Amino acid sequence: MTEQHVVLEGSERPAITDATRVADADAEAPVSVTVTLCGKVVTDDQIPDERREDAEKTKAVLERYGLTVDEVRLQPGSVKASGPVSAMNAAFQTDLGIYHGAEQGELRGREGELKIPAELAGIVTGVFGLDERRVARRAAAQATSTGNGTGFRGSFSPADLEHHYNFPEGQGDGERIGIAEFFPCGYFDDDLRAFCDGHDLPTPQVDVVPLDFDPPRSLGAARQLSPDAEDDTLEVMMDVEIVAGLCPAARIQVYFVPWTQKGWIDLIDQAIADRPVALSISYGLPETDPGLAPAARDEVYKRLEGAARLGITVCVASGDDGAGAQIQDGAAHVSFPSTSEFVLCVGGTSIDSAGREVSWWEAPGRRSGDGGASGGGVSAVVQRPQWQQNIHVDSLNQGAIKGRVVPDVAALAGRPGYDLTFEGRLKPAGGTSAGTPLWAALIARVDAALPAGKRRRFLTPLLYKSDGANSQPLGQAVCRDIAAGHDNRSNPPAVGYPVKAGYDAVTGWGVPDGVALVKGLESV
Protein backbone atom coordinates (compact mmCIF):
# COMPACT_ATOMS: atom_id res chain seq x y z
CA MET A 1 0.00 0.00 0.00
CA THR A 2 1.50 3.32 -1.12
CA GLU A 3 0.06 6.35 0.63
CA GLN A 4 1.36 9.72 1.68
CA HIS A 5 2.52 9.91 5.29
CA VAL A 6 3.47 12.89 7.43
CA VAL A 7 5.75 13.14 10.47
CA LEU A 8 3.97 12.72 13.81
CA GLU A 9 5.27 15.63 15.85
CA GLY A 10 6.84 14.73 19.19
CA SER A 11 7.18 11.03 18.35
CA GLU A 12 10.97 10.87 18.05
CA ARG A 13 12.73 8.36 20.28
CA PRO A 14 16.49 8.08 20.65
CA ALA A 15 18.49 4.86 20.71
CA ILE A 16 17.74 2.78 23.80
CA THR A 17 20.36 3.46 26.48
CA ASP A 18 22.63 0.47 27.16
CA ALA A 19 20.83 -1.72 24.62
CA THR A 20 21.79 -3.04 21.20
CA ARG A 21 19.55 -3.93 18.28
CA VAL A 22 20.07 -7.63 17.64
CA ALA A 23 17.37 -8.43 15.05
CA ASP A 24 14.37 -7.15 13.17
CA ALA A 25 11.10 -7.80 14.96
CA ASP A 26 9.25 -10.87 13.66
CA ALA A 27 6.89 -9.59 10.95
CA GLU A 28 4.03 -11.72 12.31
CA ALA A 29 4.55 -10.96 16.02
CA PRO A 30 1.51 -9.29 17.62
CA VAL A 31 1.60 -5.67 18.76
CA SER A 32 -1.00 -3.58 20.59
CA VAL A 33 -1.03 0.21 20.42
CA THR A 34 -3.01 3.10 21.82
CA VAL A 35 -3.54 5.87 19.28
CA THR A 36 -4.41 9.19 20.94
CA LEU A 37 -6.69 11.79 19.38
CA CYS A 38 -6.83 15.57 19.60
CA GLY A 39 -9.20 17.26 22.02
CA LYS A 40 -9.56 17.42 25.78
CA VAL A 41 -11.71 15.79 28.44
CA VAL A 42 -15.23 17.16 28.62
CA THR A 43 -16.79 17.47 32.07
CA ASP A 44 -20.43 17.10 31.08
CA ASP A 45 -19.98 13.85 29.08
CA GLN A 46 -21.33 15.62 25.99
CA ILE A 47 -18.85 14.24 23.47
CA PRO A 48 -18.37 16.64 20.54
CA ASP A 49 -19.53 15.32 17.15
CA GLU A 50 -16.10 16.19 15.75
CA ARG A 51 -14.44 13.72 18.13
CA ARG A 52 -16.80 10.96 17.10
CA GLU A 53 -15.98 11.69 13.47
CA ASP A 54 -12.23 11.72 14.21
CA ALA A 55 -12.50 8.36 15.97
CA GLU A 56 -14.42 6.82 13.09
CA LYS A 57 -11.95 8.12 10.54
CA THR A 58 -9.00 6.84 12.55
CA LYS A 59 -10.66 3.44 12.92
CA ALA A 60 -11.25 3.19 9.18
CA VAL A 61 -7.65 4.12 8.31
CA LEU A 62 -6.15 1.66 10.81
CA GLU A 63 -8.35 -1.14 9.51
CA ARG A 64 -7.26 -0.35 5.97
CA TYR A 65 -3.72 -1.20 7.08
CA GLY A 66 -4.83 -4.57 8.40
CA LEU A 67 -5.04 -3.57 12.05
CA THR A 68 -7.90 -4.65 14.33
CA VAL A 69 -9.56 -1.90 16.32
CA ASP A 70 -10.17 -3.36 19.78
CA GLU A 71 -11.63 -0.35 21.60
CA VAL A 72 -12.57 3.27 21.00
CA ARG A 73 -12.56 5.67 23.97
CA LEU A 74 -14.23 8.99 23.22
CA GLN A 75 -13.23 10.37 26.63
CA PRO A 76 -10.57 11.78 26.40
CA GLY A 77 -10.07 10.32 22.92
CA SER A 78 -8.09 7.22 21.99
CA VAL A 79 -8.26 4.13 19.78
CA LYS A 80 -6.76 0.81 20.81
CA ALA A 81 -5.62 -1.36 17.91
CA SER A 82 -3.67 -4.56 17.41
CA GLY A 83 -1.99 -6.36 14.57
CA PRO A 84 1.28 -7.84 13.35
CA VAL A 85 4.61 -6.01 13.26
CA SER A 86 4.43 -5.79 9.46
CA ALA A 87 1.14 -3.87 9.60
CA MET A 88 2.44 -1.54 12.31
CA ASN A 89 5.58 -0.83 10.30
CA ALA A 90 3.48 0.02 7.27
CA ALA A 91 0.89 2.13 9.09
CA PHE A 92 3.40 4.20 11.04
CA GLN A 93 6.45 4.07 8.73
CA THR A 94 8.78 2.62 11.33
CA ASP A 95 11.15 -0.32 11.58
CA LEU A 96 10.51 -2.26 14.77
CA GLY A 97 13.46 -4.23 16.08
CA ILE A 98 14.47 -6.53 18.92
CA TYR A 99 16.95 -5.01 21.35
CA HIS A 100 18.94 -6.52 24.18
CA GLY A 101 20.20 -4.62 27.21
CA ALA A 102 21.44 -5.19 30.73
CA GLU A 103 18.39 -3.77 32.52
CA GLN A 104 15.42 -5.08 30.52
CA GLY A 105 16.93 -8.00 28.68
CA GLU A 106 15.09 -8.52 25.39
CA LEU A 107 12.52 -5.96 24.29
CA ARG A 108 10.88 -4.55 21.20
CA GLY A 109 11.87 -1.00 20.28
CA ARG A 110 12.24 1.64 17.63
CA GLU A 111 14.29 4.76 16.91
CA GLY A 112 13.54 8.04 15.19
CA GLU A 113 10.20 9.59 14.26
CA LEU A 114 6.89 7.98 13.41
CA LYS A 115 4.83 8.93 10.40
CA ILE A 116 1.07 8.65 10.10
CA PRO A 117 -1.21 8.55 7.07
CA ALA A 118 -1.62 12.13 5.88
CA GLU A 119 -5.40 12.03 6.26
CA LEU A 120 -4.93 11.62 10.04
CA ALA A 121 -2.82 14.79 10.38
CA GLY A 122 -4.40 17.07 12.96
CA ILE A 123 -6.41 14.16 14.35
CA VAL A 124 -3.86 11.68 15.74
CA THR A 125 -1.54 13.11 18.41
CA GLY A 126 0.41 10.00 19.41
CA VAL A 127 0.98 6.28 18.86
CA PHE A 128 2.06 4.35 21.96
CA GLY A 129 2.96 0.70 22.45
CA LEU A 130 5.36 0.08 19.58
CA ASP A 131 8.36 0.51 21.89
CA GLU A 132 8.63 -1.43 25.16
CA ARG A 133 11.41 0.54 26.88
CA ARG A 134 10.90 1.36 30.53
CA VAL A 135 9.57 4.83 31.41
CA ALA A 136 8.30 4.25 34.96
CA ARG A 137 10.35 3.75 38.10
CA ARG A 138 9.24 3.35 41.67
CA ALA A 139 9.87 5.89 44.41
CA ALA A 140 10.54 3.54 47.33
CA ALA A 141 12.76 3.15 50.36
CA GLN A 142 12.98 0.68 53.22
CA ALA A 143 12.38 1.77 56.80
CA THR A 144 15.64 1.37 58.68
CA SER A 145 15.08 2.02 62.36
CA THR A 146 12.77 1.73 65.30
CA GLY A 147 10.35 4.44 66.36
CA ASN A 148 7.59 5.25 68.78
CA GLY A 149 4.67 3.89 66.77
CA THR A 150 2.58 0.92 67.86
CA GLY A 151 3.46 -1.19 64.81
CA PHE A 152 6.29 -3.68 64.31
CA ARG A 153 9.64 -2.24 65.51
CA GLY A 154 7.91 1.03 66.35
CA SER A 155 6.57 1.66 62.85
CA PHE A 156 3.32 3.58 62.39
CA SER A 157 0.10 1.56 62.32
CA PRO A 158 -3.08 2.86 60.64
CA ALA A 159 -4.30 4.11 64.03
CA ASP A 160 -0.98 5.91 64.59
CA LEU A 161 -1.27 7.62 61.20
CA GLU A 162 -4.87 8.66 61.84
CA HIS A 163 -3.84 10.20 65.14
CA HIS A 164 -0.61 11.76 63.91
CA TYR A 165 -2.29 13.48 60.96
CA ASN A 166 -5.62 14.13 62.71
CA PHE A 167 -7.79 12.29 60.18
CA PRO A 168 -11.51 13.14 60.25
CA GLU A 169 -13.90 10.46 61.51
CA GLY A 170 -15.02 7.73 59.13
CA GLN A 171 -13.64 4.87 57.05
CA GLY A 172 -14.04 6.25 53.53
CA ASP A 173 -17.62 5.09 53.13
CA GLY A 174 -18.94 5.57 49.60
CA GLU A 175 -15.58 6.66 48.20
CA ARG A 176 -13.54 5.15 45.37
CA ILE A 177 -9.72 5.30 45.41
CA GLY A 178 -7.40 4.32 42.56
CA ILE A 179 -3.84 3.00 42.89
CA ALA A 180 -1.39 2.73 39.98
CA GLU A 181 1.06 -0.16 39.74
CA PHE A 182 3.53 -0.90 36.94
CA PHE A 183 5.16 -4.16 35.75
CA PRO A 184 6.93 -6.15 37.22
CA CYS A 185 5.04 -6.97 40.42
CA GLY A 186 2.50 -9.31 41.99
CA TYR A 187 -0.52 -8.89 44.21
CA PHE A 188 -1.23 -10.99 47.33
CA ASP A 189 -4.78 -11.07 48.77
CA ASP A 190 -3.64 -13.12 51.76
CA ASP A 191 -1.29 -10.36 52.92
CA LEU A 192 -4.04 -7.76 52.75
CA ARG A 193 -6.38 -9.93 54.82
CA ALA A 194 -3.63 -10.64 57.36
CA PHE A 195 -2.81 -6.93 57.60
CA CYS A 196 -6.43 -5.92 58.15
CA ASP A 197 -7.00 -8.73 60.65
CA GLY A 198 -3.86 -7.72 62.53
CA HIS A 199 -5.24 -4.20 62.98
CA ASP A 200 -8.83 -5.25 63.72
CA LEU A 201 -10.08 -3.68 60.51
CA PRO A 202 -12.51 -4.99 57.91
CA THR A 203 -10.92 -6.03 54.62
CA PRO A 204 -12.09 -3.59 51.95
CA GLN A 205 -13.28 -4.37 48.45
CA VAL A 206 -10.21 -4.35 46.22
CA ASP A 207 -10.64 -4.63 42.45
CA VAL A 208 -7.56 -5.75 40.53
CA VAL A 209 -7.78 -4.02 37.13
CA PRO A 210 -5.32 -5.55 34.61
CA LEU A 211 -4.50 -3.20 31.73
CA ASP A 212 -2.24 -5.31 29.49
CA PHE A 213 -0.60 -6.75 32.63
CA ASP A 214 -2.24 -9.25 34.98
CA PRO A 215 -0.13 -9.51 38.15
CA PRO A 216 0.88 -12.95 39.46
CA ARG A 217 -0.62 -13.97 42.79
CA SER A 218 2.40 -15.79 44.22
CA LEU A 219 5.97 -14.70 44.93
CA GLY A 220 7.37 -17.57 42.87
CA ALA A 221 5.40 -16.47 39.82
CA ALA A 222 6.36 -12.83 40.39
CA ARG A 223 10.05 -13.71 40.47
CA GLN A 224 9.70 -15.17 36.97
CA LEU A 225 9.05 -11.61 35.73
CA SER A 226 12.14 -9.90 37.13
CA PRO A 227 14.80 -10.18 39.83
CA ASP A 228 13.25 -7.02 41.30
CA ALA A 229 9.71 -8.41 41.45
CA GLU A 230 9.86 -9.19 45.19
CA ASP A 231 10.74 -5.61 46.13
CA ASP A 232 8.22 -4.25 43.63
CA THR A 233 5.47 -6.48 45.02
CA LEU A 234 6.25 -5.28 48.55
CA GLU A 235 5.65 -1.77 47.23
CA VAL A 236 2.31 -2.79 45.72
CA MET A 237 1.16 -4.26 49.00
CA MET A 238 2.40 -1.17 50.83
CA ASP A 239 0.19 1.06 48.66
CA VAL A 240 -2.85 -1.15 49.09
CA GLU A 241 -2.39 -1.74 52.83
CA ILE A 242 -1.91 1.96 53.60
CA VAL A 243 -5.12 2.87 51.77
CA ALA A 244 -6.99 -0.14 53.17
CA GLY A 245 -5.90 0.64 56.72
CA LEU A 246 -7.15 4.21 56.49
CA CYS A 247 -10.22 3.69 54.26
CA PRO A 248 -11.48 0.13 54.86
CA ALA A 249 -15.00 1.08 53.76
CA ALA A 250 -13.87 2.54 50.42
CA ARG A 251 -13.77 0.74 47.09
CA ILE A 252 -10.13 0.39 46.04
CA GLN A 253 -9.18 -0.14 42.40
CA VAL A 254 -5.61 -1.20 41.65
CA TYR A 255 -4.56 -0.63 38.05
CA PHE A 256 -1.76 -2.84 36.73
CA VAL A 257 -0.04 -1.61 33.58
CA PRO A 258 3.24 -2.15 31.69
CA TRP A 259 6.05 0.30 32.39
CA THR A 260 5.81 1.78 28.88
CA GLN A 261 4.45 5.02 27.46
CA LYS A 262 1.29 3.12 26.52
CA GLY A 263 0.97 2.02 30.15
CA TRP A 264 0.82 5.64 31.32
CA ILE A 265 -1.83 6.56 28.74
CA ASP A 266 -4.03 3.53 29.41
CA LEU A 267 -3.76 4.01 33.18
CA ILE A 268 -5.09 7.56 33.19
CA ASP A 269 -7.72 6.82 30.55
CA GLN A 270 -9.11 4.09 32.80
CA ALA A 271 -9.05 6.33 35.87
CA ILE A 272 -10.95 8.99 33.94
CA ALA A 273 -13.55 6.36 33.07
CA ASP A 274 -13.81 5.12 36.68
CA ARG A 275 -13.60 8.57 38.34
CA PRO A 276 -12.12 7.82 41.77
CA VAL A 277 -11.93 10.74 44.15
CA ALA A 278 -8.15 10.23 44.28
CA LEU A 279 -5.54 8.27 42.32
CA SER A 280 -2.20 7.37 43.93
CA ILE A 281 0.88 7.14 41.66
CA SER A 282 4.21 6.28 43.28
CA TYR A 283 6.13 6.03 40.00
CA GLY A 284 7.92 8.45 37.73
CA LEU A 285 11.20 9.25 36.01
CA PRO A 286 13.25 12.41 35.47
CA GLU A 287 11.09 14.85 33.51
CA THR A 288 13.88 15.41 30.97
CA ASP A 289 14.61 11.69 30.46
CA PRO A 290 15.20 11.27 26.70
CA GLY A 291 13.41 7.93 26.75
CA LEU A 292 10.11 9.73 27.23
CA ALA A 293 8.89 11.13 23.91
CA PRO A 294 7.55 14.70 24.05
CA ALA A 295 4.24 13.48 22.61
CA ALA A 296 3.91 10.97 25.45
CA ARG A 297 4.58 13.58 28.10
CA ASP A 298 2.06 15.93 26.49
CA GLU A 299 -0.61 13.23 26.29
CA VAL A 300 -0.11 12.22 29.92
CA TYR A 301 -0.32 15.85 31.04
CA LYS A 302 -3.44 16.40 28.92
CA ARG A 303 -5.10 13.46 30.63
CA LEU A 304 -4.05 14.66 34.07
CA GLU A 305 -5.67 18.00 33.25
CA GLY A 306 -8.84 16.13 32.29
CA ALA A 307 -8.79 14.14 35.52
CA ALA A 308 -8.43 17.37 37.53
CA ARG A 309 -11.37 18.94 35.69
CA LEU A 310 -13.45 15.92 36.72
CA GLY A 311 -12.54 16.43 40.38
CA ILE A 312 -9.99 13.60 40.58
CA THR A 313 -6.97 14.52 42.70
CA VAL A 314 -4.05 12.54 41.31
CA CYS A 315 -1.42 12.18 44.04
CA VAL A 316 2.14 11.67 42.74
CA ALA A 317 5.29 10.95 44.74
CA SER A 318 8.02 13.58 44.45
CA GLY A 319 10.64 10.81 44.41
CA ASP A 320 13.21 9.44 46.85
CA ASP A 321 16.39 10.81 45.27
CA GLY A 322 16.41 14.38 46.49
CA ALA A 323 17.27 17.26 44.16
CA GLY A 324 18.99 14.94 41.67
CA ALA A 325 15.93 12.82 40.79
CA GLN A 326 18.06 9.82 39.73
CA ILE A 327 20.34 11.87 37.44
CA GLN A 328 23.91 12.32 38.69
CA ASP A 329 25.09 15.12 36.41
CA GLY A 330 25.52 17.76 39.11
CA ALA A 331 22.36 19.67 38.14
CA ALA A 332 19.02 19.73 39.95
CA HIS A 333 16.13 17.73 38.48
CA VAL A 334 12.52 16.85 39.26
CA SER A 335 10.32 13.92 38.30
CA PHE A 336 7.61 13.34 35.71
CA PRO A 337 4.63 13.37 36.18
CA SER A 338 4.88 15.09 39.59
CA THR A 339 5.55 18.44 37.93
CA SER A 340 2.21 18.55 36.16
CA GLU A 341 0.12 21.44 37.49
CA PHE A 342 -2.79 18.99 37.55
CA VAL A 343 -1.46 16.67 40.28
CA LEU A 344 -0.83 16.88 44.02
CA CYS A 345 2.89 16.23 44.47
CA VAL A 346 3.82 14.57 47.77
CA GLY A 347 7.24 14.95 49.41
CA GLY A 348 8.66 13.17 52.44
CA THR A 349 9.36 13.60 56.16
CA SER A 350 10.78 11.50 58.96
CA ILE A 351 10.62 11.49 62.75
CA ASP A 352 13.96 12.36 64.33
CA SER A 353 15.39 11.05 67.60
CA ALA A 354 13.76 13.91 69.52
CA GLY A 355 10.33 13.00 68.16
CA ARG A 356 10.15 15.99 65.77
CA GLU A 357 8.85 15.58 62.24
CA VAL A 358 11.53 16.93 59.89
CA SER A 359 12.35 16.76 56.19
CA TRP A 360 13.41 13.30 55.12
CA TRP A 361 17.12 12.91 54.29
CA GLU A 362 19.37 9.91 54.76
CA ALA A 363 22.95 10.04 53.48
CA PRO A 364 23.89 10.43 50.71
CA GLY A 365 20.42 11.69 49.79
CA ARG A 366 19.69 9.11 47.09
CA ARG A 367 18.79 5.45 46.95
CA SER A 368 21.83 4.34 44.94
CA GLY A 369 23.90 5.03 48.05
CA ASP A 370 21.48 3.21 50.39
CA GLY A 371 19.96 6.49 51.49
CA GLY A 372 17.10 8.63 50.30
CA ALA A 373 15.64 12.12 50.41
CA SER A 374 12.48 13.97 49.54
CA GLY A 375 12.42 14.90 45.88
CA GLY A 376 11.59 18.49 45.07
CA GLY A 377 12.58 21.52 43.08
CA VAL A 378 11.61 23.52 40.01
CA SER A 379 10.41 22.10 36.71
CA ALA A 380 12.45 22.70 33.56
CA VAL A 381 9.44 21.81 31.40
CA VAL A 382 6.23 23.06 33.04
CA GLN A 383 5.78 26.80 33.51
CA ARG A 384 4.77 28.00 36.96
CA PRO A 385 0.95 27.99 37.15
CA GLN A 386 -0.93 31.16 38.01
CA TRP A 387 -1.90 29.86 41.43
CA GLN A 388 1.80 29.40 42.32
CA GLN A 389 2.95 32.89 41.34
CA ASN A 390 3.39 33.90 44.98
CA ILE A 391 5.77 31.01 45.64
CA HIS A 392 9.29 32.46 45.61
CA VAL A 393 11.53 29.48 44.89
CA ASP A 394 14.10 29.75 42.11
CA SER A 395 15.72 26.82 40.33
CA LEU A 396 19.19 25.81 41.48
CA ASN A 397 20.14 25.66 37.79
CA GLN A 398 21.40 28.86 36.20
CA GLY A 399 19.27 30.23 33.37
CA ALA A 400 16.33 27.95 34.18
CA ILE A 401 12.71 28.87 33.51
CA LYS A 402 10.33 29.97 36.24
CA GLY A 403 8.83 26.51 36.46
CA ARG A 404 6.27 24.67 38.54
CA VAL A 405 7.58 24.10 42.08
CA VAL A 406 7.16 20.75 43.82
CA PRO A 407 6.18 19.18 46.15
CA ASP A 408 2.87 20.65 47.25
CA VAL A 409 2.65 18.74 50.55
CA ALA A 410 4.44 15.99 52.45
CA ALA A 411 3.92 12.98 54.70
CA LEU A 412 5.99 10.35 56.47
CA ALA A 413 8.59 8.73 54.19
CA GLY A 414 11.52 7.83 56.46
CA ARG A 415 11.86 6.66 60.04
CA PRO A 416 10.00 4.95 61.63
CA GLY A 417 8.19 3.70 58.52
CA TYR A 418 4.77 2.15 57.96
CA ASP A 419 3.59 -1.10 59.55
CA LEU A 420 3.01 -3.62 56.73
CA THR A 421 2.48 -7.31 56.11
CA PHE A 422 4.33 -9.05 53.27
CA GLU A 423 4.56 -12.77 52.59
CA GLY A 424 2.88 -13.33 55.95
CA ARG A 425 5.58 -11.41 57.83
CA LEU A 426 5.62 -7.96 59.39
CA LYS A 427 7.87 -5.78 57.24
CA PRO A 428 7.87 -1.97 57.67
CA ALA A 429 8.69 0.19 54.65
CA GLY A 430 8.49 3.81 53.56
CA GLY A 431 9.50 6.38 50.95
CA THR A 432 7.51 9.14 49.29
CA SER A 433 5.68 6.24 47.67
CA ALA A 434 4.15 5.60 51.12
CA GLY A 435 3.16 9.21 51.78
CA THR A 436 1.38 9.32 48.42
CA PRO A 437 -1.30 6.66 49.13
CA LEU A 438 -1.66 8.20 52.61
CA TRP A 439 -2.68 11.49 50.98
CA ALA A 440 -5.03 9.66 48.59
CA ALA A 441 -6.70 8.00 51.58
CA LEU A 442 -6.91 11.31 53.45
CA ILE A 443 -8.56 12.99 50.45
CA ALA A 444 -11.20 10.24 50.43
CA ARG A 445 -11.83 10.62 54.15
CA VAL A 446 -12.05 14.41 53.83
CA ASP A 447 -14.33 14.20 50.80
CA ALA A 448 -16.74 11.95 52.70
CA ALA A 449 -16.90 14.53 55.51
CA LEU A 450 -17.62 17.54 53.28
CA PRO A 451 -21.07 18.89 52.32
CA ALA A 452 -22.26 17.96 48.82
CA GLY A 453 -21.40 21.34 47.24
CA LYS A 454 -17.79 21.17 48.40
CA ARG A 455 -16.94 17.60 47.38
CA ARG A 456 -14.91 16.18 44.47
CA ARG A 457 -12.75 19.19 43.77
CA PHE A 458 -9.16 19.03 42.54
CA LEU A 459 -7.24 19.91 45.69
CA THR A 460 -3.91 21.36 44.61
CA PRO A 461 -4.79 24.92 43.46
CA LEU A 462 -7.06 25.30 46.48
CA LEU A 463 -4.04 24.91 48.77
CA TYR A 464 -2.55 28.10 47.31
CA LYS A 465 -5.80 30.06 47.62
CA SER A 466 -6.67 32.33 50.55
CA ASP A 467 -8.69 30.47 53.18
CA GLY A 468 -10.93 33.51 53.62
CA ALA A 469 -10.45 33.73 57.40
CA ASN A 470 -7.11 35.52 57.78
CA SER A 471 -5.95 35.75 54.15
CA GLN A 472 -3.30 33.07 54.53
CA PRO A 473 -3.07 30.35 51.88
CA LEU A 474 -5.22 27.32 52.65
CA GLY A 475 -2.13 25.08 52.59
CA GLN A 476 -0.60 27.06 55.42
CA ALA A 477 -3.81 26.80 57.46
CA VAL A 478 -4.43 23.07 56.99
CA CYS A 479 -0.86 21.71 57.05
CA ARG A 480 1.67 21.58 59.86
CA ASP A 481 4.75 23.38 58.60
CA ILE A 482 7.99 21.39 58.40
CA ALA A 483 10.64 24.04 59.02
CA ALA A 484 13.50 21.83 60.21
CA GLY A 485 15.67 19.17 58.65
CA HIS A 486 18.30 18.67 55.97
CA ASP A 487 18.10 20.21 52.51
CA ASN A 488 17.46 17.68 49.73
CA ARG A 489 20.94 17.53 48.19
CA SER A 490 21.59 14.11 46.68
CA ASN A 491 25.35 14.34 46.10
CA PRO A 492 25.18 15.17 43.23
CA PRO A 493 24.02 17.90 43.29
CA ALA A 494 26.04 18.98 46.31
CA VAL A 495 23.50 21.70 47.15
CA GLY A 496 19.80 21.03 47.56
CA TYR A 497 16.70 23.12 48.10
CA PRO A 498 16.53 24.43 51.69
CA VAL A 499 13.94 23.59 54.31
CA LYS A 500 12.48 26.77 55.78
CA ALA A 501 9.44 28.21 57.52
CA GLY A 502 6.43 28.37 55.22
CA TYR A 503 6.35 26.76 51.81
CA ASP A 504 9.57 25.14 50.58
CA ALA A 505 10.63 22.84 47.73
CA VAL A 506 11.32 19.87 50.03
CA THR A 507 8.09 19.43 52.01
CA GLY A 508 5.73 21.93 50.32
CA TRP A 509 3.18 23.34 52.76
CA GLY A 510 3.99 20.55 55.20
CA VAL A 511 2.12 17.54 56.55
CA PRO A 512 -1.67 17.38 56.86
CA ASP A 513 -4.09 18.13 59.63
CA GLY A 514 -7.11 16.24 58.31
CA VAL A 515 -9.76 17.90 60.48
CA ALA A 516 -8.38 21.33 59.61
CA LEU A 517 -8.47 20.36 55.93
CA VAL A 518 -12.18 19.58 56.18
CA LYS A 519 -12.87 22.94 57.82
CA GLY A 520 -10.66 24.79 55.37
CA LEU A 521 -12.31 23.26 52.30
CA GLU A 522 -15.70 24.20 53.67
CA SER A 523 -14.63 27.86 53.47
CA VAL A 524 -13.15 28.00 49.95
Helix tally? 12
Shape: globular
> What is the C-alpha radius of gyration, as a whole number of Å?
22 Å
The SS-based structural class is alpha+beta
Spatial gap, N to C terminus: 59 Å
Report the helical percentage: 25-40%
Question: Could you explain the architecture of this structure?
Answer:
The protein is of the alpha+beta class and 524 residues long. Helix content is 25%, strand content 23%. The chain has twelve helices and 28 strands. The strands form nine sheets. Strands 11, 12, 13, 14, 16, 18, 19 and 24 form an eight-stranded mixed sheet that branches. β4 (68-73) and β5 (78-84) form a beta hairpin. α9 (432-449) packs across α12. It is globular, with a radius of gyration of 22 Å. It starts with a strand and ends with a helix.
Overview in brief:
The protein is α+β, with helices and mostly antiparallel strands.
List the main descriptive attributes of the protein structure presented here.
globular, 524 residues, four-stranded antiparallel β-sheet, alpha+beta, 28 strands
How would you summarize the topology of this molecule?
Layout: E1 5-7, E2 19-24, E3 30-37, H1 49-64, E4 68-73, E5 78-84, H2 85-92, E6 97-101, E7 105-109, E8 115-117, E9 124-128, E10 137-138, H3 158-164, E11 176-182, H4 189-198, E12 205-210, H5 219-223, H6 229-246, E13 251-257, H7 261-274, E14 278-281, E15 283-286, H8 294-309, E16 313-317, E17 335-336, E18 344-351, E19 357-359, E20 361-362, E21 372-373, E22 377-383, E23 403-406, E24 409-412, E25 421-422, E26 425-426, H9 432-449, H10 460-463, H11 474-478, E27 479-480, E28 511-512, H12 514-523
Parallel strand pairs: 11-13, 11-14, 12-13, 14-16, 16-18, 18-24
Antiparallel strand pairs: 1-8, 2-6, 3-5, 3-9, 4-5, 6-7, 10-15, 15-17, 18-19, 20-21, 22-23, 25-26, 27-28
